[in-house]
Amino acid sequence: MQSIQSTEAQNSTTAVSSWALPALTFLFFIWGFITCLNDILIPHLKAVFDLTYTQAMLIQFCFFSAYFVVSLPAGALINKLGYQKGIVAGLAIAGFGTLNFIPAASFHSYPWFLAALFVLASGITILQVAANPYVTVLGSAKTASSRLTMTQAFNSLGTTVAPLAGAALILSQLDSTEGADAVQLPYLILTVALFAVAFIFSRLKLPAVENTTAAEKISIKDLLPYSHLWLGALGIFMYVGAEVAIGSVMVNFIALPEITGLAEAEAAHYVAWYWGGAMVGRFVGALLMQRINAGLLLAVHAAAAIVLLVLVITGQGQLALLALLTIGIANSIMFPTIFSLALQGLGKYTGQGAGLLCLAIVGGALVPVAQGMLADSFGLALSFILPVFCYIYICYFGLRSRKVTS
């Protein structure tokens, strides 16, 4: 009798745990979706609140500054709660952030939107600190890499789908009387989804994972000798800043009369091609790096991005449009390649180095604001000169790292 009950309990646990990977995969999808939805939110709120480009870029500033502010506290929180409860906490905080979009729209308050974005991004930061290690334990260790690749692919799928959904649910209402209220339905759906997944994760019986790195504090003294780590951190800063800045102004740029002259709701559909190119490029780049030096391949991609941005700045019409969208392919391998090159040879300091690189994601908060200031002063096309300088540095870092990877 006891044996039967034990078997039933094991079957029950297996049945519940079988939902873990699908739920986690949806988690990767939804935070990719939310992050990319900012590219649609920016032109919408810019028009609704009659903002300058600098003011509109505060959306990305509030969102990505959370990575800098919350990353280390998130590690301490997860060290205390564990990975599973950390995921639940991150989902709940993100859900509270999306929920605040509803009163922000009702009261027509841009500062409330910005505060809601910071709370939302804080939850996502906690998720990113907690979720990746969990993927590796939800099955055989031999297939851990394939599981992580699959979940990352769904993250890219989220960034590709978000512009299409945002165009249909948000930007299509730009000329209507709804104004800021147009964001209420999509963010209400996100709120329900986030809290639903939080409930699922709170009920799952997942394997216990010993946390050995999340609470590591960054010791500047220990990391000082590793110059390539600091150069890599600056590379992450430049890359995330450039990628986010380009995506943030893409809808407005495509809608310019000299480019396509399309309504912003139609222009937003092209953003999906930008992020879709990045998704495809990641798979192709992974194959190429098996045969080509990673540092060299990074430099080539950065050089391609520079050439494409020059065409964006100097060109018009279909030429500028195609060049802008192709930058997504050039971006595809940059983040993981810079990350891995920067961590080479760190040994026992790898965890601390990774923490430093995560803090460098704050580039996504600062570079878009700087590009917004350039757009207000010199025009949208000329503002792309800032990402050019970002990619010049990334090209230098790739060439410098080529000897290390050899």
Automatic annotation (TrEMBL):
It is found in: Cell inner membrane. The chain crosses the membrane at residues 21-45, 57-79, 86-106, 112-131, 152-171, 183-201, 229-255, 267-288, 295-313, 319-342, 354-374, 380-399. This is FHS family L-fucose permease-like MFS transporter. It is a multi-pass membrane protein. Intake of glucose and galactose. Keywords: Cell inner membrane, Cell membrane, Membrane, Sugar transport, Transmembrane, Transmembrane helix, Transport. Belongs to the major facilitator superfamily. FHS transporter (TC 2.A.1.7) family. PANTHER family: L-FUCOSE-PROTON SYMPORTER, PROTEIN TSGA. Residues 20-406 form the Major facilitator superfamily (MFS) profile domain. It comes from the Bacteria. It comes from Rheinheimera soli. Pfam families: MFS_1 (PF07690).
